[in-house]
Structures are given as C-alpha cells and as structure tokens.
C-alpha cells in the first residue's frame, strides 16, 4: 500500500541516530572552540573593534546554529533526493529569492524606522505582504516555465512554483515584522534582524520545499 503524505513527512523528519550524534558532537566542538577563543582573544578583540563585536556576534552565532539545523533537515530528506535528485538543483534559486525579498523588506523597514518612527505598523506590514504575494506569483510562474522548458516535468514545476510563492510571501511578512519587533524591544534591527531573519528564512524555505515535494511527487 502506498504511504500517504503524513507518513512520508514523518519518515523524513525522523532523525537517524548517527545524524543526531554527529550534530551534537559538532555543536559541542564549536562551542568549545568559541569559549577557548574568547578566553584568549576576547578582551583584545573588543578593545580593537569596540562594542560592535559583542553586538554582532550573537546573531551570527545563532545563524551558524541555524545553518547546521538546515543542513540536518536536508540530510533527513536523503531518500527523497535520491529518488528526485533534480530537487537539489532548485534549492539555491529558491533560497536566494526568499533571502533576497527578505533583505529588501528589512532594508526598507529599517530606513523607515529611522526616518518615520511613528508610521502605521499594520498598514506597512499589510503592504509588504501584498508585495510579497505579487512577487511570489510572478516568480512562481517564471520558475514553472523555466522548469518546463528545461526539464519537461510538470509536477516538479508545480513543486518549485508553489514553494517559491509561499516562501517569498512568508519572508516578506516575517522580515518586516521581525525588524519592527526588534525596534520596539529597543534592539538595533540593522544589526540583529539580518542574520536571524535570513537563517529562519532558509530553514522555513527548505521545510516548505521538501514538504510540498513529498505531497505532490510522492502522494499524488
């Protein structure tokens, strides 16, 4: 009996023992290196670079951890990639488009926060979501056409199109909202929002992409 979409998704998310051990060991080694490096060079680096080092490092470190999580997620869909290796070819373009629209939204809202701090938050977020939806539709159609002309696989084109549509729409909202939230918490969105929003974007994009691929390619 052919497994349904829920069973396939659960199987893809089930971490293999060696994957979990590898991730824990790698994380531990990274943390040890950071602690040792900080003990020897921390004071000197802060004196040379000023406070910006301590402000920028946490967000970048969380981005590193998020990157390892994203890599682990891709690994857990190894069976899916073995069956449809072409899926891997579209990961860079989907992730790039999602990161790009997020960066645009962050840049615009950070500038607006500096110039007009009393702007209507709800109205601005709604506008960004509309833009994300429109751009998502445009690029979904373009990628579907490109995939069909290059690979002639309609199901794959549908997967790529749907994935890029939802990813771009979500990131347009999240990048804007996250930057505004940081500003309200008296944190500098120009320093913290970029790395954190980007890695969250990468993780959610990969999850959406493979989930949609499993539902369409394996279940339909």
Secondary structure: elements and pairs:
Elements: H1 5-13, H2 17-49, H3 52-76, H4 78-83, H5 91-115, H6 121-151, H7 154-184, H8 189-218
Helix pairs in contact: 1-8, 2-3, 3-8, 5-7, 5-8, 6-7, 7-8
Structural account:
- The structure is a single chain.
- This protein is mostly helical.
- It has one domain: Tetracycline Repressor, domain 2.
- 86% of the residues lie in helices and 0% in strands.
- α1 crosses α8 and α3 runs parallel beside α8.
- The longest helix has 33 residues.
- The protein starts with a helix and ends with a helix.
- About 3% of the residues have low confidence.
Structure summary:
The protein has one domain: Tetracycline Repressor, domain 2 (Orthogonal Bundle). Helices cover 86% and strands 0% of the residues. It has 8 helices and no strands.
Element order: H for helix, E for strand: HHHHHHHH
* CATH homologous superfamily designation: SLC41 divalent cation transporters, integral membrane domain
Q: State the separation between the terminal residues, measured CA to CA.
A: 14 Å
CATH third-tier fold name: Tetracycline Repressor, domain 2
Provide the domain count: 1
- CATH architecture label name: Orthogonal Bundle
Q: Helical content, roughly? A: over 70%
Query: The biggest beta sheet, please?
Result: none
Class by helix and strand content? mainly alpha
Low-confidence stretches: 12-18
What proportion of the residues form beta strands (DSSP E)? under 5%
Mean pLDDT across all amino acids: 79
The count of strands amounts to 0
């Amino acid at each position: 009996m052919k497994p349904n979409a829920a069973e396939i998704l659960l199987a893809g998310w089930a971490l293999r023992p060696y994957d979990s051990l590898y991730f824990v060991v790698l994380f531990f080694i990274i943390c040890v290196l950071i602690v040792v490096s900080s003990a020897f060079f921390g004071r000197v680096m802060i004196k040379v670079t000023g406070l910006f080092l301590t402000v920028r490092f946490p967000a970048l470190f969380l981005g590193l951890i998020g990157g390892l999580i994203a890599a682990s997620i891709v690994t857990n869909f190894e069976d899916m990639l073995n069956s449809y290796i072409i899926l891997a070819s579209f990961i860079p373009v989907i992730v790039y488009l999602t990161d790009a629209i997020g960066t645009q939204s962050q840049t615009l809202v950070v500038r607006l926060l500096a110039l007009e701090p009393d702007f209507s938050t709800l109205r601005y977020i709604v506008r960004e979501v509309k833009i994300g939806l429109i751009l998502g539709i445009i690029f979904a159609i373009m990628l579907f056409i490109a995939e069909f002309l290059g690979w002639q696989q309609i199901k794959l084109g549908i997967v790529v199109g749907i994935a890029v549509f939802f990813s771009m729409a979500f990131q347009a909202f999240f990048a804007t909202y996250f930057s505004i939230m940081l500003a309200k918490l008296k944190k500098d969105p120009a320093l913290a929002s970029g790395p954190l929003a980007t890695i969250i974007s990468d993780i959610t994009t990969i999850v959406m992409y493979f989930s949609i691929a499993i539902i369409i390619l394996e279940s339909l």
